[in-house]
Amino acid sequence: MSPSERIERSALVTGAAGFIGFHLSRRLLEMGWDVVGIDNLNDYYDPSLKRARLEILENYERFAFNRLDLADREGMEGLFDANAFAVVVNLAAQAGVRYSIENPRAYIDANIVGFLNILEGCRHSESVRHLVYASSSSVYGANTSYPFGVQDNVDHPVSLYAATKKSNELMAHTYSHLYALPTTGLRFFTVYGPWGRPDMALFKFTRAIRAGEPIDVYGQGDMRRDFTYIDDIVEGVVRVMTTVAQPDPLWTGDAPDPSSSAAPWRVFNIGNNDPVELLRFIEVIERAVGKKAVKNLLPMQPGDVPATAADVRALSEAVGFEPSIAIEEGVRRFVDWYLEYYIE
């Protein structure tokens, strides 16, 4: 492989020790990409799980890791100066809707300041051809028209986390407009699967049900989520990475389409397109675990929304994305991993 070809298949993956970042990095490495991963390995959840993910990635010759915080301006400048990335995938962020109510400044540092450093690095790089970044279904906020479509208004976030993700989309558009930097934002819908985050419902419910402990079920269990299996997410991200954002020739300021632009900027939903009621989700976990849950039914928490549902037609038309893993299969795979990793 020539040096130019190596550059064309070189990627920076931020948050590489995180749930989605780990799975994406491993997929790219198996496809023959050179991957530089960064992560600050913070203690938002158990750092040992992040280190275990990294140990797997470090078995690949084409993987290099740097412990680095997105908010470290000098460190990020040095990273871009020292490497020639063809594609940057920004998955590092302070996650969690509820945590944003308790620790708002963490979200500004990671999701706003950190994302600016990513944009600046891409802007000044001579090699970056495409920036792909994680947005969130949370941007739909107070919307109650389902399924959520990328043409829908997203001006009414109900958590600071959601506001920072909407801000990322606006910041990316500015850089696409000013500097012709191709950017694509992906609004992820409730990602789950093996090596998932311990603060997510599937992880917490599985652990509690096995232990015979009660689980807190918010919204009385009536909430619906578009649970999306990690392999489907990664397949969509990989397809988007290699389909560089282009200006929309039909876009007009007289009737602006919120999902595209005259600049090389776009946003997509990436979800399973099959919302599941929380109580049914719990039933699927019960079957996989082999035990019944003790449910503590509670009202919705601040920042939560009653339902999420992804309209993925735009992503399907653009890159041929089609989710393929049903909730029963995905939960079974997670539980199998959980029992192997934590129990056996």
Strand arrangement, largest sheet? 3-2-1-4-5-6-11
Q: Give a short account of the largest sheet.
A: 7 strands, parallel
Low-confidence stretches: 1-6
Strand content bin: 15-25%
What order do the helices and strands follow?
HEHEHEHEHHEHEEHEEEHEEHEHH
Overview of this protein structure:
Helices cover 42% and strands 16% of the residues. The protein is built from twelve helices and 13 strands. With 344 residues, it is an alpha/beta fold. The protein is globular and about 55 Å long. The strands form four sheets. It has a seven-stranded parallel sheet, with helices on both faces.
Search tags:
344 residues; alpha/beta; two-stranded parallel sheet; 12 helices; 16% strand; disordered N terminus
Summarize it:
The protein is of the alpha/beta class and 344 residues long. The chain contains twelve helices and 13 strands.
List the helices and strands and how they pair.
Layout: H1 3-8, E1 10-14, H2 19-30, E2 34-39, H3 47-57, E3 63-67, H4 73-82, E4 87-90, H5 97-102, H6 104-124, E5 130-136, H7 160-179, E6 183-188, E7 191-192, H8 201-211, E8 214-217, E9 224-225, E10 228-229, H9 230-241, E11 265-270, E12 276-277, H10 278-289, E13 294-297, H11 313-319, H12 327-343
Parallel strand pairs: 1-2, 1-4, 2-3, 4-5, 5-6, 6-11, 7-10, 8-13
Antiparallel strand pairs: 9-12
Helix pairs in contact: 2-3, 2-9, 4-6, 6-7, 8-10, 10-12
